[in-house]
Amino acid sequence: MEITDELVEEIKRAVRVKSPDADGEIKVLAQACFSEMRIAGVNITNPQDPLAKQAVILYCKGHYGYDDKPEGFLVAYGALRDAMALSSEYKEGKSDAGDADNTNS
């Protein structure tokens, strides 16, 4: 999954980092998160999906040193990942036919 510069900037704002020096590490963390979700059975086709973005933000907050107690972020990430894995919305091969591309905007 390609991690866009826009997503990196959103994650940086969420973890309260401004330095461009953090871009590489944030990008690697986001890629690791998407890989971990895929292993858990979560099929993300759009990295801009609100739940996918929230999962990545929680993952990054838990691994980036955002807080002196990152366990809460990791627990929240794990719960969200597991809920997504159980949802038919994130199953591999799910057809969006008749779902209007899954947009509710």
SSE order, one letter for each helix or strand: HHHH
Distance between the termini: 24 Å
CA radius of gyration is 14 Å
Shape: globular
Q: How many β-strands, per DSSP?
A: 0
Which quaternary structure do these chains form?
Answer: single chain
Q: What are the low-pLDDT stretches, counting only 5+ consecutive residues below 50?
A: 95-105
Proportion in β-strands: under 5%
Structural class comes to: mainly alpha
Total helices: the number is 4
Largest sheet: none
State the helicity in percent bands: 40-55%
In round numbers, the mean pLDDT is 86
Write the layout of secondary structure elements.
Elements lengths: L4 H10 L8 H17 L10 H14 L7 H16 L19
Helix pairs in contact: 1-2, 1-3, 2-3, 3-4
Textual characterization of the structure:
The chain has 105 residues and is mainly alpha-helical. It has helices at residues 5-14, 23-39, 50-63, 71-86.
Defining key terms:
105 residues, mainly alpha
Quick overview:
The protein is 54% helix and 0% strand. With 105 residues, the protein is mainly α.
